[in-house]
Design a protein that fits this description.
Oligomer: single chain
CATH class: Mainly Beta
Shape: globular
Distance between the termini: 45 Å
CATH architecture: Distorted Sandwich
Radius of gyration: 20 Å
Strand order of the largest sheet: 1-15-14-13-12
Strand content: 35-45%
CATH topology: Beta-galactosidase, Chain A, domain 5
Amino acid sequence: MMRSHLLWLAALSLFYTGACQTNRKAQTPMPSMTKAVFGKLPDGREVYQYTLTNKAGSKVQIINYGATVTSLCVTDRHGKIEDVVLGYDNLQGYIDGTAYFGAIVGRYGNRIAKGRFQLDGKIYQLTVNDGENHLHGGRIGFNKVLWDAEVIRDTGEPSLQLQYVSPDGEEGYPGTVTLKVTYTLTEKNELRIDYEGTTDKPTILNPTQHSYFNLSGSFANTILDHTLMIEAPLAVSTRLSS
């Protein structure tokens, strides 16, 4: 199973304040990636934050806990630089949080009624974590685990690949699934997300990325004035009558 998402963020020049702070005179001349400790899990394992910056200076920060986008710094039409995704200030927020901010969710995004599905004539019972339903992978989905991270250096653009191996029976799902998610910050100011999953037996797999966007850059503003344009064919409906 392979899937790719593009988040297109057009900009003439990109600088950031706060989480996006930089100096206009110190623009990054080449794509770069840095790594820093973001915090520690209760069992002592360290969680790292990776910062990907492209030639224009746009920046995305990702932690390997939940393969989570913690910030995305871009400019608006007026040249003001803002972080346009919602996130927590520290690791504990992601550990305790239930809103899936910026994370990869799975094995299966969205709800499965009563936590049950049938595959090849067999009924599987998943953990129930949303009323009587199974939501976004269960109590400990892909958003609540530590992923292995690898910097990809041969693409010419800052790119980070994260991998998680979900064992057979985890949250009730059949089969061992290996999921790779690659974040790439392109020179067109796109955040590209590629998914590749493999399994050793029939299963269901429907991961997705769960960032909350507010393109105003201020979460004091609502998204009610946002306009979404989707580049897709126009569906034409024809009604026949006798």
